[in-house]
């Protein structure tokens, strides 16, 4: 194994899902829903399979999907992208992130990101021979995660090539505020840096959040330097389809495509027209999806609090983090490894998403994208801890 990959073992998601299968525990670790997405989308995929849309699609993605991605971004965020040249379909957001970093970073270039970070970020940065400059998100007095603006400013320097921003943020459920985004944008402009935004949870900002979702690309001077990434997995409950996309100015998007064509070439021909159907669903679909997830958030946050956890309620995503100190836990990794045996539930330690392990030592993450009865069962089991 090459040196640059040696620090990376099996992903924590694979480890914890295997543990759930082995022990028969309720799996609130890896984030995937246990119900299917919109029936119109599933029917369109079946139809595409049946009608022979099963060979290589065009390199940038099927035209209907690129057109739907453009229309969706115009409808929800007022962003205009040309489906021919400014949008490319990828094998999930994961490939888009990897291809963006590989296409934009020279070895030694620096990538500013926030920790805890989604695990593929560190690996993609390492594959490019780039260097990550994490800025730590910490629980603040108001129960929300925040960062020190001076630390963000200090993370930017002459080698900064890009900032990788995930909002709404996995695993904390943080939604970056307009002020925080304005600072990120200011620093990008000041340092001539690009931004790569991971917005896979763009439709999961709860109605009581302190801020709506604001794509960084909508800020002054940012559209021309931002690659905006999203995917179908979360919004349409089809994480196994791995259909994602990247939007941005043609020069940046073509850098992504240059890499993508040698990573996967193309992907998921019959699923692409189906995702196009889903993206065109009426606003009610997106609102109902969010409301359903918000009810589950409330159910799990309430249940975890009753079970004795100190809960950091999320404003977005389908994850909630909790501090295990209140339950006598000293270390989230140890806590999660023993949890299935102790009470038959799987969670994910967020410590593994920090360079500064101390900052995440006591924190663990639960996914609430599960049927209410599954959450009820998990909470019943977790109550046995106290
Ligand atoms: N980014 C974040 C923040 C995620 O939580 C995930 C996992 N769903 C991904 C990217 C990967 O998305 P995809 O499955 O579309 O590759
Ligand atoms: N994004 C999902 C999570 O954070 C799972 C992704 C994965 O398993 N790689 O749980």
From TrEMBL:
Residues 26-382 form the Aminotransferase class I/classII large domain. It comes from the Bacteria. Pfam families: Aminotran_1_2 (PF00155). CDD domains: AAT_like. It is an enzyme of class 2 (transferase). Its EC number is 2.6.1.-. GO terms for molecular function: transaminase activity. This is Pyridoxal phosphate-dependent aminotransferase.
């Amino acid at each position: 194994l090459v040196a640059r990959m040696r620090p990376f073992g099996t992903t924590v998601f694979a480890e914890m899902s295997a543990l759930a299968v082995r022990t028969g525990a309720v799996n609130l670790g890896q984030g995937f829903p246990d119900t299917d997405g919109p029936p119109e989308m599933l029917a369109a995929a079946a139809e595409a399979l049946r009608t022979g849309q099963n060979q290589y699609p065009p390199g940038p993605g099927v035209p209907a999907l690129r057109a739907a991605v453009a229309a969706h971004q115009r409808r929800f965020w007022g962003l205009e992208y040309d489906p021919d040249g400014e949008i490319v379909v990828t094998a999930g957001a994961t490939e888009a992130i990897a291809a963006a970093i590989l296409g934009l970073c020279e070895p030694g270039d620096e990538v500013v990101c926030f920790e805890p970070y989604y695990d593929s970020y560190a690996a993609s940065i390492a594959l490019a021979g780039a260097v990550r400059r994490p800025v730590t998100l910490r629980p603040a007095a108001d129960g929300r995660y925040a960062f020190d603006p001076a630390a963000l400013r200090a993370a930017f320097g002459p080698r900064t090539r890009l900032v990788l921003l995930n909002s709404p943020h996995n695993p904390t459920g943080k939604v970056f505020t307009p002020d925080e985004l304005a600072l990120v944008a200011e620093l990008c402009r000041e340092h001539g840096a690009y931004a790569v935004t991971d917005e896979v949870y763009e439709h999961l900002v709860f109605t009581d959040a302190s801020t709506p979702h604001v794509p960084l690309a909508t800020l002054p001077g940012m559209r021309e330097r931002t690659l905006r990434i999203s995917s179908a997995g979360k919004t349409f409950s089809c994480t196994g389809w791995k259909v994602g996309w990247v939007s941005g100015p043609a020069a940046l998007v073509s850098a992504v495509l240059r890499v993508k064509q040698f990573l996967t070439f193309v992907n998921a021909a019959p699923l692409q027209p189906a995702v196009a159907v889903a993206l065109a669903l009426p606003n009610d679909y997106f609102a109902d999806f969010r409301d359903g997830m918000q009810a589950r958030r409330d159910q799990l946050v309430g249940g975890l609090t009753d079970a004795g956890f100190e809960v950091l309620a999320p404003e977005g995503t389908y994850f909630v983090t909790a501090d295990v100190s209140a339950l006598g836990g000293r270390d989230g990794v140890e806590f999660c490894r023993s949890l299935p045996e102790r009470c038959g539930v799987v969670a994910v330690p967020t410590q593994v998403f920090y360079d500064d392990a101390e900052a995440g030592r006591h924190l663990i993450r639960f996914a609430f994208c599960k049927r209410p009865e599954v959450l009820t069962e998990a909470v019943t089991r977790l109550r046995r801890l106290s």
